[in-house]
Amino acid sequence: MTLALPATEISAKLETQFPGSLVDSSGNTIVVKPESIFQIASFLKNTPGFDFDYLNFITAVDYNTYFEVVYYLVSLEHNHGLILKTRCTNRENPTVPSVVSLWNGANFQEREVYDLMGIKFEGHPNLKRIMLWEGFQGHPLRKDFKLQ
Amino acid sequence: MGIEDISKPYIYPDIELDRTEGEAIEAARKLYKQPIKDPDSWLEEDISRNILLTTVDAIINWSRRSSIWPINSGLACCAFEMIATAASRFDISRFGMEIFRPSPRQADLLIACGTLTWKMAPTYKRIYEQMAEPKWVIAMGSCAISGGLFRHSYSVVPGINMIIPVDIYIPGCPPRPETLLHGIQALQEKIKHQSIAKKKEQS
Hints:
The structure holds 2 protein chains of 2 kinds. Chain A is an alpha/beta fold. Helices cover 22% and strands 30% of the residues of chain A. Chain A has 3 helices and 8 strands. Chain A has helices at residues 7-17, 37-46, 106-117; strands at residues 3-4, 22-26, 29-32, 54-62, 67-75, 80-88, 95-97, 120-122. The mean pLDDT of chain A is 89. In chain B, helix 6 links the parallel strand 2 and strand 3 (168-170). The longest helix of chain B has 18 residues, at 14-31. The A-B interface holds A 132-133, 136, 140, 145, 147-148 and B 118-119, 152-155.
């Protein structure tokens, strides 16, 4: 069973490394600002002791006022995991840096989030729809998507 | 298997083989003296003295409904009920439609079993158009009938009759194999009353 790391220890370390980039931390969840997600993800992947070498999944949640992108990071070496989140308040053009250059498995997952939720991932090598067809209007998993 | 008798020679001398062959031939000559009667000989006499009368419609419809070959295409979970119907427990072959064809060119019946998404719709329409006439369509399950649970979804076709004409609707989510068999029998009943002659246009 993958051990969930307590967020308080990691958030203290991140606060010294990247001051002012943390929004919230509780349980085993850390919420960071979208502009610093790439640096923090890179730090968590490459720092000995953390070694989050495996990205379990990326998903996104619509909370009406903001979008939340969720990353579940796992270390296969130490068998521990961490939930990393970031929030986009811009509904018109939500943008988050891509983590494909860190974990290749993020490629399709980010495309799926873009397809269904409309969150753009900056730096993604091939950001286009993956489930729905080209020409589909809107992003159907958004709360304000109108059904026929 | 027992232990082989090593006293018996493994390779027989050919004079011994020839003797065995000769014995078998002589035994056959003694046994088979009379020609065996053709088991179908009674049929020929019987038919030669009779006339069978039928209509073109009746014989065409009989042959059509007795050999409906469905296409081997499953859309979603209802396909498993179709597979169960084809398997030995429910045994669709009792009704003359056991041969699931993998090619639409050889199929007569399209069992639309499951949810049809808009992304699949052009392909499914194409499969239907590739089938040779005469062809029939069964909408199996509530998704194929009306979109079912996913009717208002952004990705699901609300009823297969939006894209292809449907002959028989089988309700259920999913329908039991008995229901599918009943639906196919209803289709056979429908074919029974079809006519190749064009009906007069009603004025």
